[in-house]
Design the sequence.
């Protein structure tokens, strides 16, 4: 079975802290994604990576950065957390080369910034 | 740009009622279309998908047909159960790197 694992399910951080959200997939997928989910807004793409050390900005990259040093791991970094980054963060991955191939999601990380 | 529009929720139904959740899209080219479901406290799971016009995706009693002429992908189920209570997201794959673009989600609550 496909597995996307987000290491932290629930985090509480203080304003100004540096926050790392880790995601690991076991399917050897090239593409990985970070979304944030907010009520009424659905899922919005923060960053995606189409291969190791490659990254592209999504729709809302401000205040975030990412790291992909190994194929299986994609990290989301909040350089200086702010209260408006309180949200649910979802990591996802997919293989390339197949039309309509499925994107697989992790269980999500609930981040509260106080 | 490409986008997905879903009917607003919440949708509240009695068990065994018929369900329709409307979804329309705007996209260049020929996107693939998806429905994802999110149960309370969990991530998103693929429910069904369709990759070309007139394709019908189906799973767990849910169905959706890719209608290019109306740019729609409405989700239907003939008889809902309490266990179907969840948030449903319509989505399309767009762009060279196949980014997934989501609708805002529709919350479904099914009562006994």
Sequence:
């Amino acid at each position: 079975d496909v597995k996307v694992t987000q290491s932290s399910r629930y985090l509480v951080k203080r304003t100004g802290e540096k926050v790392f959200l880790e995601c690991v997939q076991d399917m050897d997928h090239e593409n990985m994604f970070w979304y944030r989910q907010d009520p009424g807004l659905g899922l919005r793409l923060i960053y995606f990576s189409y291969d190791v050390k490659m990254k592209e900005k999504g729709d809302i990259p401000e205040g975030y950065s990412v790291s992909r040093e190994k194929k299986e791991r994609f990290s989301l970094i909040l350089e200086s957390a702010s209260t408006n980054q309180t949200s649910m963060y979802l990591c996802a991955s997919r293989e390339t080369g197949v039309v309509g191939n499925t994107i697989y999601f992790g269980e999500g990380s609930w981040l509260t910034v106080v | 740009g490409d986008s997905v529009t879903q009917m607003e929720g919440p949708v509240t139904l009695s068990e065994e009622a018929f369900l329709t959740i409307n979804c329309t899209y705007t996209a260049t080219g020929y996107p693939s279309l998806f429905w994802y479901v999110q149960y309370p406290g969990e991530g998103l799971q693929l429910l069904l998908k369709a990759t070309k016009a007139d394709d019908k995706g189906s799973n767990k009693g849910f169905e959706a047909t890719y209608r290019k002429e109306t740019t729609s992908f409405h989700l239907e189920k003939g008889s809902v159960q309490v266990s179907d209570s969840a948030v449903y997201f319509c989505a399309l794959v767009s762009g060279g790197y196949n980014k997934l673009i989501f609708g805002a989600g529709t919350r479904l609550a099914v009562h006994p």
User: Anything to note?
Assistant: DSSP finds no helices and twelve strands in chain A. The radius of gyration of chain A is 13 Å. The longest strand of chain A covers residues 42-51.
